[in-house]
Amino acid sequence: MAVLAESGSNPDVELLYDINGLAKDAPHWFDRGMEFVGEYGLLLAMVLLVLGCWWSVRRRGGEGAASSVAALVWAPLAAGLAVLVNVPIRGFVERPRPFVDHQGLDVLVSGKTDFSFVSDHATLTMALGVGLFVAHRRFGLAGIALALLEGFCRVYMGVHYPTDVVGGFALGTAVVLLLSPPATALLTPLMKAVERSPRAGWIVRRRTESDGRKDALLRSARKPVESEERDLAA
């Protein structure tokens, strides 16, 4: 990877200069906005999107609510796992940041001293986007779109090569999809148990009046049994 980064005829480097060159022609305020969006804004947007998806699934309810929430819980877990997997990958590849080997880049974020391949931001956002897609198609498409925008921003900011971003997209997607079957197999029964809980069931689906009546009937049915048990114990 380091050899590729040193080659000025490498399409990866050429695309880096083409995209980052947009930052040089853009107004200062626009670059500052892209800096915030690429560093923090899109990550925050992904968190809000996950919460919005959870709220939608919860309100919809139905028999598949537990499995949908289980898939949704897997999305951030997979994203965190993908970032952890990236730690040894970065240490093995040891690709320097683009601005270390190439002059003339407009670097919008200073202080980046770690290795470049693969992009944590791209890995994290794509894992969340694909995880959302598994849980809810409409929210997932929006998440994937935000991840693609995140990848563009990282190159625009001069802190990653395009292949760093593509590698992050591939890593995030692979972790989500490859581990999704066992993860959902473990999480779905857990979410079904949560759904049956009178106190925590709201996490999986919205409580309704019929749910309240069922809980009241269950409590009233338990009282005679509990009273008999106390009498026998006495």
UniProtKB/TrEMBL annotation:
One Pfam family it belongs to: PAP2
A Gene Ontology cellular-component term: plasma membrane
Protein topology in the membrane: Multi-pass membrane protein
A GO MF label: hydrolase activity
SMART domains: acidPPc
Record-annotated Phosphatidic acid phosphatase type 2/haloperoxidase domain positions: 69-180
Keywords, comma-separated and alphabetical: Cell membrane, Hydrolase, Membrane, Transmembrane, Transmembrane helix
Region (Disordered): 209-234
Source domain of life: Bacteria
Segments passing through the bilayer: 40-57, 69-89, 115-134, 141-159, 165-187
Protein's cellular compartments: Cell membrane
Protein name: Phosphatidic acid phosphatase type 2/haloperoxidase domain-containing protein
Organism of this sequence: Streptomyces bungoensis
Species classification: Bacteria, Bacillati, Actinomycetota, Actinomycetes, Kitasatosporales
